[in-house]
C-alpha cells in the first residue's frame, strides 16, 4: 500500500503487517502500536513541529538553524526510505516531497521546506498507524489462544505452551478455559462459547466425537481432547493467514486507483519540469521554479491511492471478528453489489439434521411398536435418516435385528424378534390404510417410510430436514435490502416447496443437478449481480459461477473456505444479510474516498500552477486530504452492521463436524388420540448427522430413499 502511494521503503511496516500475527503470538511483542504517541514518525513530527514553532519567535541565524533542524527531523521519516525505493526503481510521492523540499532549500525557503517535512511526516505516521491498527484486530484473534495448556503425559498433568502441543496429545480443558488448539473430544460433555470465532451467541454442545476449535471457551464441563493440529496450523492460525492473503486481493476499484496513481508520479515530474521550463521562457524563472515545486506536491496521488485499500482492510478485519471471512477487495466489491441471492436448501436453509416429525400407526398398532421395529432394522446404519429414527426412540434400549440387508432403491429387510420385517418407501411396501396419510406427509415435504412386521403394516414414519429457525428472518432481511432470493435444490418439488414456504421464499428451483445450479446462476445474472450461498463443496460449480460465492458454516473446513469468496464461519444465516450490508457500506466509503481525493487533486494542480496556493498551503491541503481519506476508510471497520443477534434456539448439538457420530436420545411428543406425534416447523430436535447427509439432496444413497415426485 505504501509503495503504491508514497514509494518509501516500507519493508519493516509490510513485514509487520503480514507476519506480525505469528510473531506477536510467539513473542508477545505487539505487532501494532497501541497508542498514537508510540508511532516513530509522529514522535519525529512532534519534535519538528516544536522546532518550527520556536523558530517563529526568533530571527536571523537562530531561526534558520531551527528551521533546518525541523527539516532534518521531519525528512528523516521519509527521505531514507525514498532513496532506497529509488535505487530499486520505484518512484513515489516520497520522491516528489523530497524534490520539493530540496528545491525549497535551494531557493532559500527554509521555513517552507521544514513545513513540508513536518506535515508529510505526520501523514506518514497516521497512514502507518491506521493500517497497522486495522490489521491488528486480525492478529488479536491469535490472542484467543491461552498462554498455557494442560496435557496428560505419562498419566500426569503437565502445563505446556500452545506451541509445544503435538498431534495426538491428550489436552485437558477445565470449565471456563480456552481451548488451545483444534482437536476431537474423547471424554466429557460441555457447551462451548464459539462467539469469538464464529460470531454466534448460542453455545454449542459437544461430547465424545465432536470436533472443537482453537480459541473457543469451555463451559461447565471438563473435556479431554485429542489434539489434531499444532498451534501453527490450527483453524485459528489458518483463518488469520487466509485473511492476510485476502487483504492483498484487489477489486476493480482498487486496481483502477493504482493504475491511475502509479504512472501519475513520473507524470507529475514531467508536468513540473514543463511548468518550470515554459514559465521561465515567459516570466521570472525564480517564480516559475517555485510554482513547479508546488505542482510536485499538489499532484501527488497519495490520498487517491489510499482511497480503497484502507477501507478494504478495515472492512475485512471487522468482518473476520464477526465470523465473516471476506477474501479480499474483489469479494468486498462483489458482495456489496449483489442484487440476487441464490440459496441452496440442504445445510443452508436447513440444518442438515433430519428429524422424525411424525409417526402414524396403523389401526390397532401402538406407536412404540412402529419405532421399535424400525429402529431394530436401522440399528447399525450410519445414514443420518437412520440416526433420526434411532434418536426418536429416546432412551429405550434397541435390539438390533438380524439378517438385515439393503434393497437398493427400496428399503431394508431382516428379522426382528424371530419374524420377518421390512422398512421402505411406499410401493416397496403397500401403503394400505395409510395411503392417504403417506400422501399428506409427502405433500408436507417429508420423506415417508413404511414399517412392516410379519407381513403386517405397522405404520408410517415421516422424516424431514427442518428449516433453520432464523431462515425466515434472514430472508426477510434480504428482501428489505432489495435483494431477490431464489432457492436451489436437488430435492423433489414438494419438499422444496414446503421448505421454501417456511422460509418465506417464493422463487424455487427444484430437482437440480450441480451443473443445473451453475446454469441457473448464470441465468439469474440478467437480474443483477448474483451471490450463491451453499456448503462450499457440492455447490462448487455454482459458487464459482456467481459474482460472489458464499460458504455457510465453514469453520474448520478448508475446502469450504477455499471454494468461496466469502465464508460464514458460524451457522446463523442472518450473517448473510449482515455481510451484504457491511460490504455495501464499505463500497460506499471507498467510492466517497475516490471522488473526494480525485476532486482535491483536480483542484490543487491548477491552483498551484497559477500561483494561487503556495507550497505550505498545498502541503497542508494535500496531507489533510490524506488524513480525511484514512479517517473515512477506517469507518468501514465499524461493526454496527454486524450485530450479535439474539439466539432463536437452544444450544445445539455439535455433531455436524463430529468424526464419530454420537446417537443422542431425543424426546418425541406423546401421540395424540390418532396415534400421531407431530413436530411443528419451529421445533428442531438435535440429531446426529454425517458429512453429506440430508433429507433431500443425498437420500438416493439410502436404501429406502423415497421418490416423492
Give a brief rundown of this model.
GO terms for molecular function: ATP binding; ATP hydrolysis activity; cadmium ion transmembrane transporter activity; metal ion binding; P-type monovalent copper transporter activity. The chain is an alpha/beta fold and 709 residues long.
Polypeptide structure, described:
With 709 residues, the protein is α/β, with parallel strands linked by helices. The chain has five domains: 36-141; 147-230, Distorted Sandwich (Calcium-transporting ATPase, cytoplasmic transduction domain A); 252-315 and 587-636; 324-349 and 468-579, HAD superfamily/HAD-like (Rossmann fold, 3-Layer(aba) Sandwich); 352-466, Calcium-transporting ATPase, cytoplasmic domain N (3-Layer(aba) Sandwich). The chain is 46% helix and 16% strand. It contains 25 helices and 22 strands. The chain has a seven-stranded mixed beta sheet with strand order 9-21-20-19-10-17-18, with helices on both faces. β13 (411-416) and β14 form a beta hairpin. The longest helix has 35 residues, at 575-609.
Amino acid at each position: 500500500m505504501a509503495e503504491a502511494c508514497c514509494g518509501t521503503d516500507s519493508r519493516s511496516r509490510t513485514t509487520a503487517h503480514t507476519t506480525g500475527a505469528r510473531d506477536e503470538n510467539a513473542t508477545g511483542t505487539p505487532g501494532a502500536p497501541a497508542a498514537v504517541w508510540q508511532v516513530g514518525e509522529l514522535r519525529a513530527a512532534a519534535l519538528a513541529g516544536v522546532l518550527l514553532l520556536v523558530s517563529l519567535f526568533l530571527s536571523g541565524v537562530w531561526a534558520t538553524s531551527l528551521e533546518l533542524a525541523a527539516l532534518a527531523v521531519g525528512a528523516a521519516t521519509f527521505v531514507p526510505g525514498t532513496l532506497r525505493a529509488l535505487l530499486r526503481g520505484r518512484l513515489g510521492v516520497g520522491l516528489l516531497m523530497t524534490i520539493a523540499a530540496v528545491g525549497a532549500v535551494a531557493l532559500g525557503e527554509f521555513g517552507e521546506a521544514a513545513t513540508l517535512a513536518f506535515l508529510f511526516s505526520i501523514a506518514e505516521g497516521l497512514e502507518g498507524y491506521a493500517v497497522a491498527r486495522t490489521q491488528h484486530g486480525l492478529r488479536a484473534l491469535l490472542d484467543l489462544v491461552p498462554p498455557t495448556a494442560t496435557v496428560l503425559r505419562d498419566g500426569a498433568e503437565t502445563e505446556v505452551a500452545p506451541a509445544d502441543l503435538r498431534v495426538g496429545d491428550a489436552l485437558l480443558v477445565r470449565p471456563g478455559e480456552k481451548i488451545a488448539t483444534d482437536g476431537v473430544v474423547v471424554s466429557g460433555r460441555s457447551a462451548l462459547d464459539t462467539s469469538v470465532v464464529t460470531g454466534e451467541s448460542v453455545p454449542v454442545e459437544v461430547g465424545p466425537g465432536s470436533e472443537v476449535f482453537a480459541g473457543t471457551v469451555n463451559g461447565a464441563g471438563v473435556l479431554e481432547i485429542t489434539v489434531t493440529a499444532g498451534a501453527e496450523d490450527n483453524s485459528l492460525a489458518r483463518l488469520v493467514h487466509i485473511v492476510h492473503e485476502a487483504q492483498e486481493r484487489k477489486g476493480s476499484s482498487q486496481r483502477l486507483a493504482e493504475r491511475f496513481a502509479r504512472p501519475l508520479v513520473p507524470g507529475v515530474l514531467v508536468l513540473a519540469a514543463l511548468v518550470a521550463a515554459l514559465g521561465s521562457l515567459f516570466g521570472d524563472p525564480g517564480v516559475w521554479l517555485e510554482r513547479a515545486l508546488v505542482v510536485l506536491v499538489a499532484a501527488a496521488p497519495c490520498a487517491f491511492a489510499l482511497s480503497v485499500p484502507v477501507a478494504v482492510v478495515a472492512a475485512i478485519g471487522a468482518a473476520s471478528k464477526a465470523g465473516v471471512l471476506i477474501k479480499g477487495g474483489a469479494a468486498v466489491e462483489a458482495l456489496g453489489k449483489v442484487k440476487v441471492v441464490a440459496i441452496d436448501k440442504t445445510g443452508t436453509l436447513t440444518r442438515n439434521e433430519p428429524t422424525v416429525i411424525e409417526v402414524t400407526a396403523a389401526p390397532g398398532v401402538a406407536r412404540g411398536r412402529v419405532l421399535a421395529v424400525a429402529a431394530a432394522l436401522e440399528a447399525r446404519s450410519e445414514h443420518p435418516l437412520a440416526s433420526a429414527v434411532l434418536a426418536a426412540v429416546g432412551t429405550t434400549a434397541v435390539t438390533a435385528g438380524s439378517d438385515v440387508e439393503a434393497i437398493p432403491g427400496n428399503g431394508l429387510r431382516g428379522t426382528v424378534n424371530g419374524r420377518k420385517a421390512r422398512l421402505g418407501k411406499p410401493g416397496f411396501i403397500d401403503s394400505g390404510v395409510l395411503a392417504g396419510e403417506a400422501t399428506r406427509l409427502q405433500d408436507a415435504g417429508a420423506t415417508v417410510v413404511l414399517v412392516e412386521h410379519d407381513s403386517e403394516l405397522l405404520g408410517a414414519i415421516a422424516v424431514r430436514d427442518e428449516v433453520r429457525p432464523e431462515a425466515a428472518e434472514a430472508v426477510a432481511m434480504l428482501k428489505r435490502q432489495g435483494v431477490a432470493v431464489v432457492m436451489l435444490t436437488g430435492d423433489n418439488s414438494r419438499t422444496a416447496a414446503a421448505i421454501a414456504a417456511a422460509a418465506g421464499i417464493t422463487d424455487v428451483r427444484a430437482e437440480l443437478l450441480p451443473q443445473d445450479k451453475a446454469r441457473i446462476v448464470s441465468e439469474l445474472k440478467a437480474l443483477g449481480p448474483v451471490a450463491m450461498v451453499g456448503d462450499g463443496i457440492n455447490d462448487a460449480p455454482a459458487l464459482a459461477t456467481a459474482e460472489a460465492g458464499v460458504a455457510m458454516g465453514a469453520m474448520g473446513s478448508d475446502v469450504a473456505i477455499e471454494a468461496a469468496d466469502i465464508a460464514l464461519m458460524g451457522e446463523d444465516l442472518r450473517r448473510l444479510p449482515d455481510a451484504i450490508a457491511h460490504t455495501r457500506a464499505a463500497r460506499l466509503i471507498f467510492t466517497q474516498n475516490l471522488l473526494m481525493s480525485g476532486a482535491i487533486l483536480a483542484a490543487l494542480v491548477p491552483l498551484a500552477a497559477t500561483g494561487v496556493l503556495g507550497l505550505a498551503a498545498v502541503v497542508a491541503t494535500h496531507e489533510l486530504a490524506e488524513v480525511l481519506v484514512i479517517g473515512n476508510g477506517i469507518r468501514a471497520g465499524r461493526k454496527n452492521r454486524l450485530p450479535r443477534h439474539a439466539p432463536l434456539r437452544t444450544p445445539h448439538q455439535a455433531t455436524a463436524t463430529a468424526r464419530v457420530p454420537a446417537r443422542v436420545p431425543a424426546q418425541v411428543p406423546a401421540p395424540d388420540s390418532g396415534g400421531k406425534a407431530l413436530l411443528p416447523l419451529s421445533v428442531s430436535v438435535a440429531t446426529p448427522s454425517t458429512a453429506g447427509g440430508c433429507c433431500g439432496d443425498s437420500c438416493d444413497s439410502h436404501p429406502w430413499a423415497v421418490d416423492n415426485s
